[in-house]
Each structure stands twice: as structure tokens, then as C-alpha cells.
């Protein structure tokens, strides 16, 4: 089960959007909360970010994306937060970038994330 920034609970159906516009040279973060249901088996997940792209084909490469922590293990009823942080390269084009964070382990799924890159600050 996934909860985003104190919002309603969702089953990894996203997309999950960064609440603030990002500027080239800055870092933006989406905070996701994961919870293992009571009475279920323990949950293990590893996170692997993919590239983020905008409709023009511009890319924020996966090596600029960090998932902290990169893996989790939850006992039934336990919850934890996971941060998806993107460091926006200095020469990034403005636009809405979206992509997937692969989640492997107990279940195989992915989380769709969206980051809005604003024009360069002057």
C-alpha cells in the first residue's frame, strides 16, 4: 500500500507529482510512504529509477535520481517513508518530466513520478 505526502492511500497507481516546480541546478523530492498490511507477509522492495522524459523527448537521466533508502523491508503493519530525489542538470529544458521507479522484491511493480522543470532562474 502506498501513501503520498499525507494524502489518500493508493495501491501504486499514481502518478505521483512533485508539489513544487524544480529549477535547473536544484534538487526536488517526492516523499512516498509504504505500509505492509496487517496480517500479511513481510514485504521487501528494492527501487531502481529509470530516465524521466518530457513530451519533447528531453531526458533527466536515471543517474540523477536517488531513491532513499534504495530498499526496504517491512513487517506486517509497519510503515516507512521513501524519498525520490531528482537533481536537475543545469541545462535542462523546461517541461513536465515523467518516468517510472521499478519496485522489485516481494511484488514486481512500478511507481510513476512526475517532476515539473521550470525555466532557468536569472
Quote the average pLDDT. Answer: 86
> How are the strands of the biggest sheet laid out side by side?
2-1-4-10-8
Helix content: under 10%
List the total number of helices: 0
> What can be said about the biggest beta sheet?
5 strands, antiparallel
* Rg calculated over all Cα atoms: 15 Å
H and E order: EEEEEEEEEEEE
| SSE-based structural type | mainly beta
Can you put this structure into words, describing what you see?
With 122 residues, this protein is mainly beta. Helices cover 0% and strands 52% of the residues. The protein has no helices and twelve strands. The strands form three sheets. It has a five-stranded antiparallel β-sheet with strand order 2-1-4-10-8, with no helix packed on it. A five-stranded mixed β-sheet has the order 3-12-11-5-9, with no helix packed on it. A two-stranded antiparallel ribbon has the order 6-7. Strand 1 (2-4) and strand 2 form a beta hairpin. The protein is elongated and about 50 Å long. Residues 1-11 have low confidence and may be disordered.
